[in-house]
Specification:
Elements lengths: L3 H32 L7 H16 L6 H22 L7 H20 L6
Helix pairs in contact: 1-2, 1-3, 3-4
Length: 119
């Protein structure tokens, strides 16, 4: 059985993963419209994704918004590299992976220290 701290971190990581997909999807809609000539209609689901992204971050177990955003940053970087490879078909380099590992270590450190009071 997991203790409440481990469970809270697991839930936060899942929320951050979902938020990253929403943020990347929303931003990619703008990218497609401005840089790849997609129709303006792509902005509607893009904006919905960005709104969902913001809402998901508010659900993370953190005592401060800035701490949640900082911890989320590590997860976002990993998700962006996955997007690079899976959606754009571009290679991920060893430096990309090393940088992502450093960011994940920082995110884990921030998450372990910054849970909301009483949780």
């Amino acid at each position: 059985m997991q203790d409440s701290g481990t469970r809270a971190i697991a839930v936060s990581l899942a929320l951050f993963g979902a938020a990253a997909l929403c943020e990347i999807g929303g931003c990619y809609a703008w990218w497609c419209w401005r840089r790849e000539g997609a129709g303006a209609w792509v902005l509607l689901p893009g904006m919905a994704c960005l709104a969902l992204f913001g809402w998901l971050l508010t659900l993370a177990d953190s005592d401060a918004a800035g701490r949640a955003f900082a911890a989320y940053g590590g997860i976002y970087i990993v998700a962006a590299l996955a997007w690079l490879r899976l959606a754009e078909g571009r290679p991920v380099t060893a430096r990309d992976l090393a940088g992502a590992a450093l960011c994940l270590a920082g995110a884990a450190l921030i998450l372990s220290a910054g849970r909301a009071p009483g949780r």
